[in-house]
Amino acid sequence: MLTIFFSALVFGFVFCLSPGAVLAETLRRGLLHGFTPALLVQIGSLVGDAVWAVVGLTGMALLIQHESVRVPLTAVCGLYLAWLGVRSLMDAWRLPAAESAPARSGQNALMVGAAISLANPKNIVYWGALGSALSGIVGATPSHGQTLMFFAGFMLASVLSCFLIAALVNLLRRNASPTWQRVSYGACGVVLLYLAILALRAV
Description:
This protein has 9 helices and no strands.
């Protein structure tokens, strides 16, 4: 069981710390509003991670890869990432003032994180592969207990990553000059648009 748990921890940290749409949006919001919105984007993404984890570990990934589901999901994801990318480039062009944040920005950050994670078609492939990897770790069809242990390890890594990433982004915000903030916003915008193009090309 410990092997399963620590394997899941490693998979979780790799998944959460790898560059992608959630990380780019976390950086964008963290530079603007600080630790809390950055953390909320990360926590929101946990909703999607948990959903895709259940899908992958229960063998439903093959069903969701069906064209009638995959194509519209990928299209929605691509368009949403493109919209976020354009917003980030606009922020790079004209730095927004931190005090201009709307009162509901925290709730919005939570919803954005969840939306990005839920709409990301790459999660289908990732969790489909992890479901197979778990079978390889245990050498047979995993039991319910082993599956739950793997899920617990992954989610623990995800929660720890949320706080780690938000803290690092907040540290960057406190020490970054306006020029570096522009560069960061611009880089986030380019990454988000690139991911959007990749997603839409797969439609």
